[in-house]
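A.,

Following up on our hallway conversation. Structure tokens first:
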């Protein structure tokens, strides 16, 4: 049997957890939390990184920091995970859904401007499969219309955008905020886990306060203020240092994990590209401005019927392939609130995109056997 995903343990997780436990400093913002945060800040150029309990939490923090209120509009792609929208809906925002490109599930940056109204407060691009959205276009719109940009970089650790000046910018370092996930299905993991990145100085101090239940505890412990108390809204967004200790083991092996995932991704890509021209399966399209972090390998079929047939056949062979994302604009919770615009590309990916197994312990031979099984069907 080949599962869809298998969390990879580097071997050091329980050692670092034991160290954290023995230090008796296991609440949030401890030594491992600080180590992880400074690693990410230095490696990827985030102004400030704060570990959170999930990417969903990081998005909720961003929605509070962006001061999203009742009646504000937020533009997000329809083809994404629930949390991308939910964090803003909880603040009372109206979600204005944008469509994907025809050949790439990312938000079609060329369609965003037409969705902007005087109520628009923020744009939330999602770097699907770790592939960059067209951030120059999005950041230009943000400047022109005074909007906040929150990158949903849940899948985008260690991936980059190449801007129009030819500079490589880490995803999550470009918008005002970025939100990452370390859920066990992502490239590096901590069970549940996430991170908010803050790239605009205006928000750095407040981000720490929102993170620590609306208190100025962080400033107090740095000796910047002489009293520690309740100064703002917030919640308990920070994870235990036990979670950060787990994540530290993953960070130490990030390069190795990424190298292996890329090897597997390339094997899929090569095999399916050859098949694609023969039978009309689409392989992922990587825009010129995007790098690949091998978060996910997916293919796109010609119809829902074909995809259903392929899933059933692979299952018979003991291979678990899954699809995801029902367009959010037609989900039970939001369909009544959606303005009725059709989003055909998002619906197309809803019906025809299939994710194939991709995890550290998968082998190139297994990738070949998965491709062979798909071939048999044609
Ligand atoms: C995984 C994921 C999330 C949610 O991450 P959690 O850490 O589980 O909250 C949000 N958005 C996208 C695009 C994701 O892939």
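Then the amino acids I'd put at each of the 378 positions:
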């Amino acid at each position: 049997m080949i599962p869809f995903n298998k969390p990879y343990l580097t071997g050091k997780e329980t050692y670092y957890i034991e160290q954290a436990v023995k230090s008796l400093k296991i609440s949030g913002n401890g030594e491992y939390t600080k180590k992880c945060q400074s690693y990410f800040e230095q490696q990827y150029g985030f102004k400030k990184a704060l570990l959170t309990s999930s990417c969903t939490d990081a998005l909720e923090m961003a929605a509070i920091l962006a001061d999203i209120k009742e009646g504000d509009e937020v533009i997000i792609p329809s083809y994404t995970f629930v949390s991308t929208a939910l964090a803003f809906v909880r603040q009372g925002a109206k979600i204005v859904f944008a469509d994907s490109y025809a050949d790439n599930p990312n938000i079609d940056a060329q369609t965003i401007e037409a969705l902007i109204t005087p109520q628009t407060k923020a744009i939330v691009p999602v770097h699907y499969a770790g592939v960059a959205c067209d951030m120059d276009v999005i950041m230009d719109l943000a400047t022109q219309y005074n909007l906040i940009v929150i990158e949903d970089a849940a899948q985008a650790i260690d991936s980059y955008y190449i801007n129009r000046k030819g500079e490589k910018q880490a995803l999550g370092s470009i918008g005002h905020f970025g939100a990452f996930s370390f859920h066990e299905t992502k490239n590096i993991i901590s069970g549940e886990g996430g991170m908010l990145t803050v790239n605009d100085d205006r928000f750095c101090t407040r981000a720490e306060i929102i993170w620590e239940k609306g208190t100025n505890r962080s400033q107090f412990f740095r000796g910047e203020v002489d009293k520690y108390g309740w100064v703002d809204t917030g919640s308990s967004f920070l994870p235990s240092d036990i979670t950060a200790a787990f994540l530290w083991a993953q960070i130490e092996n990030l390069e190795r994990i990424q190298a292996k995932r890329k090897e597997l991704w390339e094997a899929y890509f090569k095999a399916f590209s050859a098949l694609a021209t023969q039978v009309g399966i689409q392989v992922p399209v990587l825009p010129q401005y995007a790098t690949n972090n091998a978060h996910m390998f997916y293919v796109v079929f010609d119809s829902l019927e074909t995809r259903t047939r392929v899933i059933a056949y692979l299952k018979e062979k003991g291979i678990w392939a899954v699809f995801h994302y029902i367009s959010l604009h037609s989900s039970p919770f939001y369909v009544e609130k959606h303005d009725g615009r059709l989003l055909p590309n998002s619906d197309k990916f809803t019906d025809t995109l299939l994710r194939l197994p991709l995890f550290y312990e998968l082998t190139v031979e297994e990738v070949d056997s998965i491709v062979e099984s798909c071939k048999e069907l044609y």
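The radius of gyration is 21 Å. Curious whether your intuition agrees with the design.

B.
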